[in-house]
Design a protein that fits this description.
mainly alpha; 2 domains; two-stranded antiparallel ribbon; membrane; transit peptide
Length: 249
């Protein structure tokens, strides 16, 4: 792995620099969520497509801001506040304690607020833990988030449009969707490997690329399995990515 640096702002005061980075990253998250709430309310996109576009862009976009934060535990934990707040938000909405129809429309499959305590909450928990525990020096964080966001998100979009040929062991999943998932997860992972290596957080190498390929293929297989239909791919896909990643990296 590569070295770590200080915060991009206020090098003499890491905490102030991290708080500035937090403000910028929170603004991104707020604007993105607000944008997809509007598109869901005005029906710019079909509801399931709107949900998947948010699914793809939130986590991948969030990782772009990681270099703004300081090294070590402090930067990781402060950055994790951004998705962490969403855990509380979706939990409160999903339990019916607060009402937010725009959020329900943008994050749910069928417009039921109770859906938020499953997939959307697993999604927020995954990104929060990958950030806080593994952070930007670990390919496991990259693999977990990229296969969840890019992989699973693209799989659904492609599968719905081109998924006529079903997988033999699961008629709810398509060959096109699984191929798209493995491809998107792999290439986005490699892209972030290069991105973080630019800042010296990790060393790009062939072994890591092969590791990303193995993780993406395994994640695509798990997503295509009937167990994901019974449970939730937002839970099982990142779990598989982290477990396989721990073995190959």
């Amino acid at each position: 792995m590569g070295g770590e640096g200080g915060p991009m702002f206020f090098h003499g005061s890491p905490i102030v620099g991290d708080l500035c980075a937090l403000a910028i990253t929170t603004s991104y998250a707020f604007c993105l969520l607000r944008c997809f709430q509007e598109t869901a309310t005005t029906r710019v996109f079909e509801q399931k497509l709107n949900r998947k576009l948010l699914h793809i862009t939130f986590g991948l976009g969030f990782m772009l801001f990681w270099p703004l934060f300081s090294s070590g535990t402090q930067g990781a934990v402060i950055a994790a506040i951004v998705p962490g707040v969403n855990i509380i938000k979706v939990l409160l909405i999903g339990l019916g304690m607060i009402k937010d129809e725009a959020t329900v429309k943008s994050m749910s499959r069928f417009g039921d607020y109770r859906e938020l305590i499953k997939g959307p909450m697993y999604y927020a928990i995954t990104i929060t833990l990958c950030c806080a525990i593994y952070w930007r020096t670990s390919p496991i964080a990259i693999a977990g988030i990229c296969n969840l966001c890019a992989g699973d998100g693209i799989a659904d979009i492609v599968g719905r449009r081109f998924g006529k040929k079903k997988i033999p062991y699961n008629n709810d999943k398509s060959l096109a969707g699984s191929i798209a998932m493995a491809t998107a997860g792999f290439f986005s992972s490699v892209g972030y490997m290069y991105y973080f290596s630019m800042f010296g957080y990790m060393q790009k190498n062939l072994k890591m690329v092969i590791g990303f390929l193995v993780v993406s293929l395994a994640s695509a297989f798990v997503e295509s399995h009937t167990i994901c239909t019974k449970l939730d791919d937002n839970l099982l896909v990142p779990l598989a990515s982290v477990l396989i990643g721990t073995l190959v990296f």
